Design the sequence.
């Protein structure tokens, strides 16, 4: 059980009359009305956490509004992944077709290193792509 503390507070006559009128209409005490209004005011000003129901309502509304955009971005991302994969495999295939058989093992090795670097890049956060590619090329050449 939560304990209460007493505070003395002064109101002008108009505010006091209004509080008494509200209390009478809601069949409660002036103290009860003041507590209720203070709670609402603290919530509105951000001094007290909002009601969970309100939070859930806002969360649901934001989800519904953003859902189509999220789905659209996911579809665009999937298409970009498909075309990138196709380009990667086409490049490896073309190199196999154009290079002599003796050089194909080196192509496979370079393709594997490039794939590993791509996976490494996807795991990084907020990394400069140009610097990453430059360093990756140096790593592949020097290995």
Sequence:
């Amino acid at each position: 059980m939560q304990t209460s503390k007493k505070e003395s507070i002064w109101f002008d006559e108009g505010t006091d009359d209004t509080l008494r009128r509200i209390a009478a209409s809601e069949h409660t005490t002036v103290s009860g009305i003041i507590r209720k209004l203070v709670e609402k005011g603290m919530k509105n000003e951000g001094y007290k956490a909002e009601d969970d129901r309100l939070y859930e309502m806002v969360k649901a509304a934001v989800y519904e509004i953003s859902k189509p955009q999220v789905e659209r971005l996911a579809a665009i991302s999937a298409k970009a992944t498909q075309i990138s994969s196709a380009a990667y495999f086409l490049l490896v295939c073309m190199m196999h077709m154009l290079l002599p058989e003796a050089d194909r093992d080196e192509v496979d090795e370079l393709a594997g290193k490039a794939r590993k670097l791509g996976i490494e890049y996807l795991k990084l956060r907020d990394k400069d792509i140009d610097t990453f590619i430059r360093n990756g090329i140096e790593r592949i050449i020097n290995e």
